[in-house]
Amino acid sequence: MCGIVGIISKHNFSIKNSLLKSLKKLEYRGYDSVGFATKDGTIKKDIGFIDPFIEKTKDTETNLAISHTRWSTHGGITITNAHPHANKEKTIIALHNGIIENYLEIKQDLESAGYLFTTQTDTEIIPHFFDYELNKKKQTMQKAIQEFFKQVHGTFAILLILKNQNILYALKRDSPLVLGIAQDKFIFASDIYAFSDVTNKAIFFEDNEYAIATQEKFTFYDKEGNEIKKNVQEFSWSKEEESKQHYPHHMIKEIKEQPETSNRLIQSFATIQKNRIDKLVQLIRESKSIVFLGCGTSYHASLIGAILLSHQGINCRSNIASEAESFVSYDKETLCIAISQSGETMDVISELKRAKAVGATIASIVNVPYSTIQRFSETSIEILAGQEVCVAATKTFTNQVIVMLELARRFGYKINMQTISEKIKQTITDNEEKIKQLAEELCRKKDIFVLGKGMSYPMAREIALKLKEIDYIHAEGMMAGELKHGTIALIEEGTPVISLVPNDNKDMLSATQEVKARGAKTIIISNLKDKGDIIVPQSDTAEFAIYAGIIGHLLSYYIGVLLNVSIDKPRNLAKSCTVK
Ligand code: AGP
Description:
Layout: E1 3-14, H1 15-24, E2 33-38, E3 43-47, H2 50-56, E4 61-70, E5 85-86, E6 92-100, H3 103-112, H4 125-136, H5 141-151, E7 154-162, E8 168-173, E9 178-181, E10 185-189, E11 201-204, E12 209-213, E13 218-222, E14 227-228, E15 233-234, H6 250-256, H7 258-268, H8 274-286, E16 289-294, H9 296-311, E17 316-320, H10 324-327, E18 334-340, H11 346-357, E19 361-366, H12 372-375, E20 379-382, H13 395-410, H14 420-442, E21 447-452, H15 456-471, E22 474-479, E23 496-501, H16 506-516, E24 521-526, E25 534-535, H17 541-563
Parallel strand pairs: 16-17, 16-18, 18-19, 19-20, 21-22, 21-23, 23-24, 24-25
Antiparallel strand pairs: 1-4, 1-10, 2-3, 2-4, 5-6, 6-7, 7-8, 8-12, 9-10, 9-11, 11-15, 12-13, 13-14
Helix pairs in contact: 3-4, 4-5, 7-13, 7-14, 9-13, 9-15, 13-17, 14-17, 15-17
2-deoxy-2-amino glucitol-6-phosphate binds at residues 295-298, 340-342, 345, 348, 391-393, 469, 576-577.
């Protein structure tokens, strides 16, 4: 994870209003600590969010600076471990997104050569490595970079500067890196969002490439040092409303936006996204097997897709991307459909690379346009949910499920897509007050179980995930039938069990009775009038998943409010997981 921004400009720019303003846009990538370095060797860093850091930073101007917002991998959340990192003389300064896998070996070698390490990070090897190459081996910077690519294993997007030199070096393998080309400056960043208000011209780095930028020009090279020509892409990025408006948190704003965001997506299937959907349908028809890949909430949406398409007779499965290597083998007749809000999740990207290497076809369903996963795909559906600021996925999950419903519809599944947005609105208005009361009851509980079956099983997982990530409550999303094979031993007097019971599903009703008989406090979510504690609009089982999800999202939100936790930026998390 981590977000990085570096600017080299013909004119001086403000650290606060330019560099850190761009960095702030990448805070969703991690918010453990923040730091920057300027050309004159000044390094400032602190732990915590970017806003308080900006507030206490005394503004300066420079024409070259780099900055970093961290999601810790190696080394605790301390000022010392915050990026940027430098050699002893503070003449070589670097920051990094990724993981250097062989950093211990390199560190040992550098220690033997007399270098002193002061942090627990893998990143600290970078300035020392370059110090060794430049000052001990007397290599040129170009040769040092090529040596770095040879010796270092792992993933990295690195920005590096040398004190008092007007040059910015940028290196990339696996971790995302893009160059923004503005009138008087070059901006290197983890994604285009960092500079979308400054320029719409960008060059995306591919793996094992590096660039050297001066105030006047930039040049790209492959890892052997051969100059390469790159295409400048013009992108359009609609300026999103990022404020919370009158809402106290982005999460509730994003939940309540869903009638509009879902409708925007549904209408796009017959208009601006028709060709993309047609293409995906054609790829599904032509492929022998379909493998959905996703993580977290996106995986839950993909499970619904796999169930729906399997019901339509398509050979389809869904896998958690980080575990797919153990279960899935691909071939030329496989279609991999990656599902990812950010389009940058490293677990998914790694698996796609494995699939592509044996000739599988890649398609995707993403929210963020121009993301790595989208650029990797033969066709890519955009879920058009708009920017999602809260780390917890809500409106994007709903739209992912809607894409699954549309795909299934194209293969014969009967559904009226045009009423979904209205029913989403009804789900929220009918239930919000009731959910606030339920939140009062549940907010002090240590464990909550959520039961589902078939199409509602992914929802059980999704609701449990939200209770964990937002409220820090231990929650288990279970297949109802599995309960009696062990977990039911945990049910005691008053243990909360949320049962997802669409259309009086008999197995779900039995499982609910079984836990009730053992003292559980059951909460039934149903789509039939008078058949549950929380009632969502009438729907079939697949559509029920959307409305049940919204109930779960609202519940986790209102519990979070009562617990007074950091709802939009929960501890230890990041919106985009760009490391394995
Ligand atoms: C969702 O609430 C989570 N924050 C998380 O599980 C997320 O869905 C997961 O990391 C996948 O992200 P992606 O959709 O950007 O690939």
